[in-house]
Amino acid sequence: MTRKIRTTTGWLAIAMPQQLSDITLGQLIAMQSADKLGDLDAVSILSGTPLADLQNILDVKDLEVFNADVASIAHQIKYLYNSDAIPKTVGFMIDGGKREVKVTNNLSMEPAGAYYASRELIADAIAKHIADHGEDDWQETFSPPLTVCAQILAQYFYCRATGKPYNEAAATEFEEQVRQLPITQALPICKYFFLNYPNLSKPRTSFWHRLLQRWSNARG
User: Fold this and answer.
1) Which of 8, 61, 72, 154 is spaced 20 to 30 A from 176 at the CA atom?
2) Domain of life of the organism in this record (predicted)?
3) Alpha carbons 182 and 20: distance in angstroms, whole number
């Protein structure tokens, strides 16, 4: 839904996503990576509106109209983390056109270069978590960083999407394409890899709760 709000330079049209499928993995990464996630930052990331434009809104109360949108998205994301529904296909922009790529039933990480690169990414993420929080019951508190999720998906999809032989540097660059995927497609696939490479007990993913708490603290 698009809303028009008065600013110091005129009227500003802001379109906030209404459905989870309208939000990309890159947007969620930007929210997770923000040092201080305030109201303006969240609206800027979700709507794609430059922060400088939002800073010129005349009446700060006009931003309250977006609270319901953010709350709805937060609710949907909470349930997405609990979903095991793997999409059958995902779409990438390749050579100026959209290409649908089939997601294999067994989600095997191929070829060998992609497998070992992904295994190292997962091992490093787990090792960092244990170093920061301790080894006791680490599976219960582990929450995979979304930046690592994007890197793993780039390894998985590069050859499938481009039809080119595996190249680690090129696969790494393909992450920019992966970040454009809707989170409804990206997160369930990435969740599978973290649960199966190596085998992990299901983690209680608490990122969204931490995100909302940080935003709340910033507003206070």
Assistant:
1) 72
2) Bacteria
3) 8
Rounded to 10°, the helix 207-219/39-47 angle is 130
What's the whole-number average pLDDT of the chain?
A: 84
Please list, in sequence order, all residues whose beta carbon lies within 8 angstroms of the beta carbon of residue 12, skipping any fewer than 6 positions away. 4, 5, 6, 49, 53, 54, 56, 57
Tell me the average pLDDT across 187-196. 81
Residues 55 and 104 in one domain: no
- Identify whether residues 51 and 121 lie together within a single domain: no
Q: Which domain holds residue 42?
A: 2-81+209-219
Residues 154 and 103 both lie in one domain: yes
Indicate the pTM of the whole model: 0.80
Q: State residue 90's pLDDT score.
A: 93
| CA–CA gap between residue 21 and residue 44 (Å, rounded) | 18
Name the token pair of 57.
Answer: 């809104």
Residue type, 58: L
Same domain, 97 and 179: yes
